[in-house]
Design goal:
This protein is an alpha/beta fold. The protein folds into two domains: 143 residues, Aspartate Aminotransferase, domain 1; 241 residues, Aspartate Aminotransferase, domain 2, CATH 3.40.640.10. The protein contains 14 helices and 13 strands. A seven-stranded mixed sheet has the order 2-8-7-6-5-3-4, sandwiched between helices. It has a four-stranded antiparallel sheet with strand order 9-10-13-12, with helices on one face. A two-stranded parallel sheet has the order 1-11. α10 links the parallel β6 and β7.
Length: 422
């Protein structure tokens, strides 16, 4: 690697996924120039085909009304089933283990209804270091709902020494010491703040060995990491679809429930009619009979317009392939890391692990002396990234639509800003 623009352009020319950038709308600044969009970890860009997919459903609604449930080009009754296979490919699951429904925090609550079953002696939840606040609120409220004190029942992972990274050794130590009191382990697949990716297989094995239920919030992992949920064996997982999965603001969430739980009639759940056995759903009976797949956790019939946007993006993922995307992601992120570190600026450092196996495409740049003017400088010079209090700029070179030239240009703007404000 080197720091020249020619090198970046050469890498783009040999990138087999370069053409996928043309499948997305790239935002432009007030002068009509494409911005450097490095914020796919917050909201993915809009695929150009999304409009077509949504318009098809609007057209069928206009022409067919309620009959669209059965006679639309893509009938609405089973529309959610179109997403199960492609989404299962992204997270490494069986189609029967995956369902798309609700929003992320709603799904985490529904899954905790089933999988957080505290007792007087086993009531603790082990959760991620510095989790996204919504996860903390959801966990705390579940603990309180069951009559326990969050101060006693919530255990937060801690990083190593002065850095921001939680080693697998720290996770193991916590589980070994308190595992007999831990009812649930609920960790982010990728920490939203640091960009650290956790070892799902290892943590699952550690938790199960102590009798804990293990789940993951994959909001920053789905569509980012090459996941293998079925074989890794966690009990459940949930993720949003509007970040790396490009389904639009506030779009639906994906859920994974391992197949070993599908036939467990003793497992409690909050029920709704769309989770009822399909063969008898419209008999409108009094007794709930859940579908014996992840679909059994559904509540209501699905919002087709949102699912159309998800299907558009999943079709692009299927064409690109997660293996190919992961390969490019590692190259692109490593190149951005290299460019940032070349300047050896003592006022910033990257808190995301340098080991590619412990991260996705996000890099979190921490400022020694926080000055948000640097972030504002980036924005004024055409960079879309995000700021996380108190001192981190997150950038995510997303392999579907970012290029090596994007990372090169970003590094030049970053270092010019550092020269100005530090």
């Amino acid at each position: 690697m080197n720091t020249s623009l020619d090198y970046a352009n050469q890498q783009d020319l040999i990138d087999p996924l370069l053409s996928f950038r043309n499948k997305f709308h790239i935002p432009k600044d007030k002068d009509g120039r494409e911005v450097l969009y490095l914020c796919g970890n917050s909201l993915g860009l809009m695929p150009k085909i999304t409009r077509e997919y949504i318009l098809q459903e609007l057209e069928d609604w206009k022409n067919l009304g309620v009959e669209g449930h059965f006679h639309a080009k893509n009938p609405w009754m089973p529309y959610h089933e179109l997403l199960a296979g492609p989404m299962a490919e992204i997270v490494g699951a069986l189609p029967s283990e995956v369902v798309v429904m609700n929003s992320l925090t709603v799904n985490l609550h529904l899954l905790m209804v089933s999988f957080y079953r505290p007792t007087k002696t086993r009531h603790k939840i082990l959760f991620d270091y510095s989790p996204f606040p919504s996860d903390r609120y959801a966990i705390s409220s579940q603990v309180k709902f069951h009559g326990f004190d969050p101060k006693e029942s919530m255990i937060e992972l801690k990083p190593n020494g002065d850095d921001e990274i939680v080693s697998i050794g720290n996770v193991q130590k916590m589980i070994e010491e308190q595992g007999d009191q831990i009812a649930l382990i609920l960790i982010g697949g990728v920490n939203y703040y640091t960009g650290q990716a956790y070892d799902i297989k290892e943590i699952t094995a550690l938790g199960h060995a102590k009798g804990c239920i293990v789940g993951f919030d994959l909001a920053h992992a789905a569509g980012n990491l090459h996941l293998n949920l079925h074989d890794d064996g966690p009990d459940f997982a949930a993720w949003c679809s509007y970040k790396y999965l490009n389904s639009g603001p506030g779009s639906l969430s994906g859920c994974f429930i391992h197949e070993r739980h599908h036939h467990n009639s003793e497992l409690p759940r909050f029920a709704g009619w769309w989770g009822h056995d399909k063969k008898t759903r419209f008999l409108m009976g009094d007794e709930f009979k859940p579908i014996d797949t992840a679909e059994g956790w559904q509540l209501s019939n699905p919002p087709v317009l949102s699912m159309a946007a998800i299907r558009a993006s999943l079709d692009i993922f299927a064409e690109a392939g997660m293996v190919n995307l992961q390969k490019k992601s590692k190259l692109l992120t490593a190149y951005l890391e290299y460019l940032i570190l070349q300047e050896n600026n003592e006022n910033i450092h990257i808190i995301t692990p340098s080991d590619p196996s412990q991260r996705g495409c996000q890099l979190s740049i921490q400022m020694k002396n926080p000055d948000k003017r640097l972030f504002q400088y980036l924005t004024e010079h055409g960079v879309i990234a995000d700021w996380r209090e108190p001192d981190v700029i997150r950038v995510a070179p997303t392999p579907l639509y970012n290029t090596f030239e994007d990372t090169w240009r970003f590094s030049k703007i970053l270092h010019a800003g550092l020269d100005t404000f530090t």
